[in-house]
Each structure stands twice: as structure tokens, then as C-alpha cells.
Design goal:
The complex is a heterodimer of chains A (107) and B (121). Chain A has 107 residues and is an all-beta fold. Chain A contains no helices and eleven strands. The chains are: A mainly beta (107), B mainly beta (121). The interface between A and B is medium-sized, with 21 and 23 residues.
Chain lengths: 107, 121
């Protein structure tokens, strides 16, 4: 099983700041099979990025995914109030797994 | 417009089984991956297993092997997940999710509303 480790667990930031979230895999993941999700309390997750860097429909361009091999990142260029939420990476190359998540909270 | 509508909340006794449904509409059913993901209170997301109807056989996360069964009924465009030998730590919200358009994978582009399963004696 591929283990995904997300860091940090929680980030306290202000609107307008730039944020970079990390997702590290225990073994190499094809860049075609790495996704990021956003989840707000009481809601189902929402797909943001698939294939490492392709934005899902309707996702603002302030969200950027990058990486390869075992290291992947999600960057939010400028935090908007609606971006304060939980973020999860997922690999779906083999038996899919999620990272433990990063919570982005308002400072 | 793709929609996934899940069955309602369940309360179960330890040792029993639960079967959840996920009715899909708005697109061709068989060519997409359907997954079941759960989230315990205050915890992260956990992929349990999935099925791509055109391929037939489901795949399961190792943790749930032998305890979960995922099926898909193409005639009713409904996916099902049955979890047996329930324990209190199976208390969670269970989501079904479908791959995005043009994806035959377990990427999760569309989500159901979630079903709360409570396991308690």
C-alpha cells in the first residue's frame, strides 16, 4: 500500500497569503494518478486537481498542483476567505489511498 | 448534470451488516469508477474500495478485505456497498464517489451527499 504523508497538519494563515501544501508518497506515484481535494466542514470533498496539475472544472487558477515521483505540492497563490478548509491528496494509481490531510485555518 | 444520491442514515448493532446504495444519474454508468470512501468523526478520508462496471470485478483496500462487498447494478445505475461484522469504530459518514468525465479510474470527481452509519449497542 502506498502511504501518503501530508504536512503540515495545520496551517494558520491570513487571507491574501500564499500557501504550499506538501504530500509525500512512500513510493513513486505516476504523475497521472495524483489528486487533491478540498473539504469544508459538513460537506463532501471537492476535486480540485487531478493528474498532479490539471484543475478540475470550475476550480480557480489560484490553485496549482505540481510534483513528481514521491513529492507533490498544492499551492494556493493568494488565500481567499472560502479557501479555509481541509485539503487531502490521493493517489489512484494502485489501490487508492489518501493522505492524512492539512487543515488551513484563519489566523 | 451528474448526481449521486445515497441512501439514508443507519443505526446498527455491533456484529451486524449494513448495505448502502448510491443512485447515479446524468451520465453513462458503466464507464466510470465508483468508489466508497468513509470518514470517521473528526478524522480524514479513507478509501474502502471501488468498482468499474465495464470491468466487473471490484477492488478493495487491504484493511477491508473480507468484510466489504461492492457491487454495481447497471440496470438501475446504482452502486452498493455492504460492510459486515460492524464494530463501533465503523461509525462514520460513508460517501460514494464517481470518477470525472472521460476518466476510467478511481479519481473522485463527483460525490454523493454521504450516509451516516452509527454502530452502537
Amino acid at each position: 500500500e502506498i502511504v501518503l504523508t501530508q504536512s503540515p497538519g495545520t496551517l494558520s494563515l491570513s487571507p491574501g497569503e500564499r500557501v504550499t501544501l506538501s504530500c509525500r508518497a512512500s513510493q513513486s506515484v505516476s504523475s497521472s494518478y495524483l489528486a487533491w481535494y478540498q473539504q469544508k466542514p459538513g460537506h463532501a470533498p471537492r476535486l480540485l486537481i487531478y493528474g498532479t496539475s490539471t484543475r478540475a472544472a470550475g476550480v480557480p487558477d489560484r490553485f496549482t498542483g505540481s510534483g513528481s515521483g514521491t513529492d507533490f505540492t498544492l499551492t494556493i497563490s493568494r488565500l481567499e476567505p472560502e479557501d479555509f478548509a481541509g485539503y487531502y491528496c490521493q493517489q489512484y494509481e494502485t489501490s487508492p489511498t489518501f493522505g492524512g490531510g492539512t487543515k488551513v485555518e484563519i489566523k | 448534470h451528474v448526481q449521486l444520491v445515497q441512501s439514508g442514515a443507519e443505526v446498527k448493532k455491533p456484529g451486524s451488516s449494513v448495505k448502502l446504495s448510491c443512485k447515479a444519474s446524468g451520465d453513462t454508468f458503466s464507464s466510470f469508477g465508483f468508489s466508497w470512501v468513509r470518514q470517521a468523526p473528526g478524522q480524514g478520508l479513507e478509501w474502502m474500495g471501488g468498482i468499474i462496471p465495464i470491468f466487473g470485478a471490484p477492488i478493495y483496500a487491504q484493511k477491508f478485505q473480507g468484510r466489504v462487498a461492492i457491487t454495481a447494478d447497471e440496470s438501475t445505475t446504482t452502486a452498493y456497498m455492504e460492510l459486515s461484522s460492524l464494530r463501533p469504530d465503523d461509525t462514520a459518514i460513508y460517501f460514494c464517489a464517481r470518477s470525472p468525465a472521460n476518466h476510467v479510474s478511481f479519481c473522485l470527481g463527483y460525490w454523493g451527499q454521504g450516509t451516516l452509519v452509527t454502530v452502537s449497542s
